[in-house]
Specification:
The chain has about 100 residues and is mostly helical. The chain contains two helices and two strands. It has two domains: about 50 residues, no CATH class; about 40 residues.
Length: about 100
């Protein structure tokens, strides 16, 4: 529990320092983004109105598939740059050989 008054990330309600969860929506004082989204959905489904910073959407948790996709595309991009550099140096070498008459 925080040692200071805090504002709920799910609904925007102010809470006392000793509170472990929000008095309005029951969201934890230190939630994950998934917990924020769940508490926010439950709260708004019951007719609650979001306040302040809670009006901004929480970022979703990255799944393993998301991370794998990011790494895959990063690898492909770097691999492509590497191939282009090699191909470019081979073209320059071939042009130099042609200029010198080397087969």
């Amino acid at each position: 529990m925080p040692a200071y008054a805090w504002t709920c990330l799910a609904c925007g309600q102010s809470n006392a320092a000793a509170a472990e969860s929000c008095g309005q929506c029951a969201c934890s004082a230190t939630p994950t983004s998934r917990e924020i989204n769940t508490a926010r959905q439950r709260f708004t489904d019951r007719g609650g109105a979001l306040q302040g910073d809670a009006l901004m959407a929480a970022r979703p948790d990255l799944t393993g598939g998301d991370v794998a996709s990011i790494l895959f595309h990063l690898f492909i991009g770097l691999f492509g740059i590497s191939l282009n550099r090699r191909r470019g140096s081979n073209d320059a070498t071939a042009a130099e050989h042609a200029r010198r008459g080397i087969a």
